[in-house]
Design brief:
Helix content of chain B: 40-55%
Largest sheet of chain B: 5 strands, parallel
Radius of gyration of chain A: 19 Å
Oligomer: heterodimer
Number of helices of chain B: 8
Largest interface: A-B, 35 and 35 residues
Shape of chain A: globular
Strand content of chain A: 5-15%
Radius of gyration of chain B: 19 Å
Order of helices and strands of chain A: EHEHHEHHEHHEHHH
Chain lengths: ~300, ~240
């Protein structure tokens, strides 16, 4: 990508072309493996010598905790929820993403405004309204879209939490049928919206039904050009050591991720035998809070 | 824009706008009292009053982490909450909704802070425009005198200190209000403001507001359907 730009009107007094770093987005449904991929990606980039920072939805200092609180009570309307998330987005954009890019970091975003748009669309927002609103967003250098079968998403949620989440099942708008049906229907709707956005914004689609290592390999492959350019430009190394072609020898890419990440991937792949627990909403928010804490980035 | 479910909206929305010190709050309070005494269905709503968002706004202001964009969006969130939970349901239920400030306040303040005007209008276009918007027009100096005479303390954002216009809060407030006044002037025709000369005696302004309201709105339709009300959980008959 050449000079960095905003999608629309941008932010007053910010000149995007001064922002040197890279912005890489990972999008996908709930349980598509975004956070695993984000962690693997940051590990890989770190080994290549790139400083990284992670961002995600609801991490903002300004409104992050208040959104969590609102979600527990389920008292806000769709427009309010939409704008609350937009406030969270702008706070992180201005206080984390932009300063990090200015300092030359690689920002790995676990979701971007695309998800927010998809959610708004499903709830009756006009696409023009959304486009204008998120005219304040920076164009990422690359956006990955882990496109996963909704039934598989449900299976992963069952394995991980033993239950489905209220919000991930779209229970605020889905009325008929049981929770499983709501989940699948809602996730399918979101996917339909993300598919549209994928065309409009040029996502790099990856089959999310694949395993984490296979997806990571694919992520590496598609980022190769972008990373190589940076490495040469920086002049730090003639050839990035981690930049072997994964296609030629499958064994090389097995090394993807640190020991810790590999272990966590293995663990995640292993089915849990624990009994299904009750009180699904409280627990799944707790798990959100956990996954929403990428090392050392939460302010 | 957001999808709005079909069906008529029987209620009417009346908004007042103007500079701090233009007397708009006094006037809308008088209007509300009159409508209540005449037993019309009336509801009053203020800018920046929803409980949940207040917490964030306070945090943002205290820690000074608000930027023009987050300032704008957090107020839009607050407004949306009030709109979805009060204004729209009340309008559907056939109420006269009186709003002390509406989206125009955001258009003026946020534009002065550097947000794009078209972006702002899009942001708020989920909300219906008022049926009548009274604009209390007063020369800048008069408004400033009214405010500054009675109140020696100005808050950081209220004085527009975040704009860096001046280190002196009073000077900053003067400049800030001047810029807001210019924004109101730009909007006057765009949004068909009904201009009230706020230098006239207050009772004269009130008479004018009432007669404009009577001419524009068929008030008969807004008579209360109940002839009793709850007071401390007890039903009391009226008249």
């Amino acid at each position: 990508m050449g000079k960095r730009t905003f999608y629309g009107k941008g932010i007053p007094d910010i000149n995007p072309s001064e922002l040197e770093g890279l912005l890489i987005v990972v999008e996908g449904g709930d349980g598509s493996g975004r956070s695993t991929q984000g962690a693997l990606l940051r590990d890989w980039l770190g080994r290549l010598g790139f400083p990284t920072v992670a961002v995600g939805l609801k991490h903002s200092e300004l409104v992050g905790p208040e959104i969590e609180e609102a979600m527990l009570g389920n008292t806000l309307g769709p427009r309010t929820m939409s704008l609350f998330y937009a406030t969270d987005f702008i706070d992180q954009l201005e206080h984390v993403i932009i300063p990090s890019l200015r300092a030359g970091f690689v920002v790995v975003a676990d979701r971007y405004f695309y998800t927010l748009m998809a959610r708004d669309q499903v709830r009756g927002a006009n696409v023009e309204w959304n486009r204008s609103l998120y005219g304040m967003a920076l164009k990422p250098d690359m956006s990955f879209y882990l496109r996963t079968n909704p039934k598989l998403l449900a299976e992963r949620s069952f394995r991980k939490h033993g239950a489905l989440d209220y919000w991930e099942s779209g229970m605020d708008i889905e009325r008929s049928g049981d929770m499983y049906q709501c989940f699948v229907r809602y996730q399918t709707k979101l996917q339909r919206e993300l598919d549209k956005l994928s065309k409009e914004y040029g996502f790099e689609e990856i089959d999310g039904d694949l395993g984490p290592i296979a997806i990571h390999r694919e992520v590496q492959k598609r980022l190769e050009g972008l990373i190589a350019k940076r490495t040469l430009k920086g002049g730090a190394a003639k050839r990035a050591p981690g930049l072997r072609r994964p296609r030629t020898k499958k064994t090389t890419s097995k090394k993807a991720g640190s020991k810790a990440t590999r272990a966590s991937v293995r663990k995640a792949l292993k089915p849990k035998r624990s009994l299904p627990r009750v009180g699904n909403r409280a627990r799944s928010t707790a798990s959100h809070a956990r996954s929403a804490k990428p090392s050392g980035t939460r302010r | 824009m957001w999808e709005e479910s079909k069906g008529v909206i029987e209620g009417k929305l009346i908004a007042v706008e103007g500079l701090d010190g233009s007397g708009k709050s006094t006037q809308i309070a008088l209007l509300k009292r009159w409508l209540e005494l005449e037993s019309y269905r009336v509801f009053f709503t203020e800018w920046n009053s929803s409980a949940l968002v207040k917490k964030s706004t306070r945090k943002g202001k205290k820690q000074k982490i608000l930027t023009p964009m987050s300032f704008s969006l957090i107020h839009a969130t607050d407004f949306a909450d009030r709109y979805e939970r009060q204004i729209l349901p009340l309008l559907r239920g056939g109420y006269l909704v009186l709003a002390d400030r509406y989206s125009f306040t955001a258009f003026a303040r946020d534009a002065v802070r550097g947000c794009d005007r078209i972006w702002l209008r899009n942001l708020y276009n989920f909300a219906r425009l008022p049926d009548i918007t009274f604009f209390f027009n007063v020369p800048l100096q008069v408004a400033l005198n009214r405010i500054l005479a009675g109140r020696p303390q100005l808050k950081f954002h209220e004085a527009g200190m975040d704009l860096g216009l001046s280190d002196d809060p009073f000077e900053s407030f003067r400049l800030f209000q001047g810029m807001i006044y210019d924004e109101y002037k730009r909007m006057q025709r765009e949004f068909h403001f009904v201009v009230i000369d706020a230098t006239r005696p207050p009772e004269e302004q009130q008479q004018l507001m009432r007669s404009i309201l009577q001419q524009t709105v068929n008030l008969k339709k807004f008579k209360q359907r109940m002839n009793w009300e709850f007071d401390n959980g007890q039903a009391h008959f009226l008249r």
